[in-house]
Amino acid sequence: MNPQFLLLAGGLGAASAVLHTALLTGSPAAFILAYLAQLPLFVAGLWMGTTAAGLAAAAGTLAAFAGGGFVFALAYLLANALPAFVVVRQALLWRPGKDGAIQFYPLGNILLMLVGMIGALFVGMIFAFSGAEGGLEGALKRFIVEAFQAIRAPGLDNARLEPFAEGIARVFPGIVGVSWLFMVVVNAALAQGLVARFGAPKRPSPSIVELDLPAALLGLVAIFAAGSILPGLGGFVSRNMIVLFVAVYALAGFGVLHALVARLQWRGLALGASYGAVIVFGWPIAVFAILGLVEPLSNFKARALGRAPNGTQE
Predict the structure, then answer these.
(1) Residue 102 DSSP label
(2) pLDDT at residue 314 above 50?
(3) Could you please report the per-residue DSSP string of 219-259?
(4) How deeply is 265 buried, as exposed, middle or buried, from its count of CB atoms within 10 A (0-12, 13-18, 19+)?
(5) Distance of CA 177 to the CA centre of its chain
(6) What backbone torsions phi and psi does residue 69 show, to the nearest 5 degrees?
(7) What residue spans of 69-157 are helical by DSSP H?
(8) pTM of the predicted model, to two decimals?
(9) pLDDT tens for residues 20-43?
(10) How does pLDDT run across 37-73, given as a tens digit for each residue?
């Protein structure tokens, strides 16, 4: 392992920690910088390999500890360093295919791995707040009430604040999980684009069309959907997992969209309008979630691209 390799990996890890440490300033712009804290870690891994990702993650965690202490470094490790390292490791796994071509670890499996990490953290938080009044949901409600009272949000007096906070608390972990999931996806995509533009990536840039989810996952989604109407902890967990799976299937739905418009002359316009509608209105994401939900049973992508369901040309 040459000194240049160590210097590059460590430097990228330090840069990641600097972006994360911007949160300590309290500036609104700091949240944008912190959102990109994973970007240098992904650049290190997708450019130089899994070892570099591990070194960058370790260097970033040490730098975060130096800048903000143990709790701050732990938050950086769980939110940025560990997920980036795990994603890079899985993304660079490969095996020879039947035709001799290299087959990399599927995008859908990486996405579900991230969902598993969110679920594990969610369960950990439930246990951590099990002794609090109302458990995690009750603690979140009190936190939201105190936050809005502190900023004195207009139109939210005490009579309205309680039910508002209760409604947000019911799905707050799922919303945070979705935000984190998109953060990982955006940073990984940006890093792959940068490495492909200026260097030589360890894995060819995948297309979102390659994002497939197993049909068996529909059974788990159905269980959570049924459980979401239950009272108590079961309903709380199920509701938040459904929020998370809406985002997961929406990503798969975007893959279906890219396949459906792949052969159109106005492909760019269709994609721009679709993504713009999601950003501006929000609710169209449910349409893409449904599209991703039915894809394992309908094989829209295979039909649009003129392929058999197994990926071969028809």
Answers:
(1) E
(2) no
(3) HHHHHHHHHTTS-HHHHHHHHHHHHHHHHHHHHHHHHHHHH
(4) exposed
(5) 7
(6) 95, -175
(7) 70-76, 82-91, 107-128, 135-151
(8) 0.89
(9) 998 888 787 888 899 999 999 999
(10) 999 999 999 999 999 999 999 999 999 999 889 999 9
Selection from 241, 253, 256, 238 nearest residue 289 by Cα: 253
> Which of 203, 186, 177, 171 minimizes the C-alpha distance to 254?
186
d(CA 187, CA 56): 15
Supply 162's token pair.
């309680």
- Helix 39-48 with 82-91: angle, nearest 10 deg: 30
Percent of the residues in the chain that have a pLDDT greater than 90, as a whole number: 65
Q: Can you give the three-state secondary structure of 200-219, one letter per residue?
A: CCCCCCCCHHHCCCCCCHHH
Q: What are phi and psi of 104, to 5 degrees?
A: -85, 160
Token pair listed for 85: 């390292």
- Give the Cβ contact number of residue 88 at 10 Å: 29
Closest to 49 (Cα-Cα) out of 80, 89, 107:
89
